Q: What sequence folds into this?
């Protein structure tokens, strides 16, 4: 068994890790080698103070990056053993990965890993075709495999009740000028290594839309081009809501997203009802579930699109300095 990861292994795995989603594509993560282990750290300078006052979004993003890192190391034949929040005195260290016994990657690891560069947030309308039951089961199983749950809303009335909660959370957020300013600051109309490209932001919203969109969009909408009438809405939840639970939920989120991509599905995220505490509680009660909702997904068959940019790997690596 290898006892230490190398800089090359770190660099290769981080290339996949940074493909993870993050609030407004802020990419709030850093990676380093320490005593032969790979460590994932939050980059607190990239937290959005108005949108993410508690750091929930940063920890979800770092959890998603950690899941990609685990996949990359497993597929390279150097799987990791992971400890979350390994140093109580250093809460910025989200996870530490040390080499485990070498083994062949599983077919699931291989297919999820292959999906990493193809995944992106698709905010455009999806085709109305329903997602088959076996694929829904696969998505829920992906969340369970990472110790979370995924509740797929069934029936028009459940989706309408959710939409009501989401729209009211959206209105609450929109009243805050600092929240609106942060969103404007992170929309990119010129090529940039971070932020949400205007072209990826989805179409302009219209009054008849069932679900609120974050409002990155500026794309003109063809007349009559509406969103799918019965969207598949899925709520991802974790057992609790500690910092560790949020990192666990981030890993589960990425596993669900990659499973969706591997199944030929598109997804977008909708976190307004998670960011407003009253709405989050209402959502939890409406689901009748223990635990805490951590993310909402809209899933379906989408038009092709392209992944959004990321910063260079060297910008997120902290390498040891040799004297
Ligand atoms: C914690 C979190 C919350 C998010 N909330 C939303 C949201 O409310 N609306 C939205 O359109 N995208 C949301 N996203 C998606 C990000 O905007 C997206 O991941 C980022 O712009 C990078 O683009 P990509 O997913 O295409 O790689 C969220 C992502 C994360 C990790």
A:
């Amino acid at each position: 068994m290898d006892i230490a990861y190398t800089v090359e292994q770190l660099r290769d795995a981080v290339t996949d890790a940074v493909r993870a989603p993050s609030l407004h594509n802020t990419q709030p993560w850093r990676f380093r080698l320490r005593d032969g282990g790979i460590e994932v750290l939050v980059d607190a300078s990239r937290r959005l103070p108005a949108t993410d006052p508690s750091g929930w979004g940063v920890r979800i993003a770092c959890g998603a990056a950690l899941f990609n890192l685990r996949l990359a190391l497993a597929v390279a034949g150097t799987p990791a053993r992971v400890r979350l929040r390994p140093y109580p005195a250093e809460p910025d260290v989200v996870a530490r990965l040390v080499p485990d016994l070498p083994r062949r990657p599983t077919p699931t690891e291989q297919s999820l890993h292959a999906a990493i560069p193809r995944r992106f947030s698709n905010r455009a309308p999806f085709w109305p075709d329903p997602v088959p039951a076996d694929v829904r089961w696969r998505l829920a199983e992906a969340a369970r495999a990472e110790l979370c749950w995924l509740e797929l809303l069934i029936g028009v009335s459940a989706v309408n009740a959710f939409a009501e909660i989401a729209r009211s959370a959206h209105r609450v957020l929109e009243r805050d000028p600092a929240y609106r300013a942060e969103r404007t600051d992170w929309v990119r109309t010129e090529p940039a290594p971070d932020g949400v490209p205007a072209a990826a932001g989805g179409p302009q919203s219209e009054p008849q839309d069932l679900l609120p969109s974050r409002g990155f969009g500026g794309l003109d909408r063809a007349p009559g081009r509406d969103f799918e009438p019965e969207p598949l809405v899925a709520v991802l939840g974790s057992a609790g809501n500690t910092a560790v639970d949020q990192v666990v939920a981030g890993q589960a989120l990425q596993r669900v997203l990659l499973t969706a991509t591997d199944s030929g599905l598109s997804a977008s995220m909708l976190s307004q009802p998670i960011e407003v505490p009253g709405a989050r509680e209402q959502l939890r009660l409406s689901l009748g579930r223990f635990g805490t909702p951590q993310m909402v997904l809209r899933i379906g068959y989408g038009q092709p699109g392209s992944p959004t940019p990321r910063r260079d790997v060297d910008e997120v690596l902290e390498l040891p300095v040799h004297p």
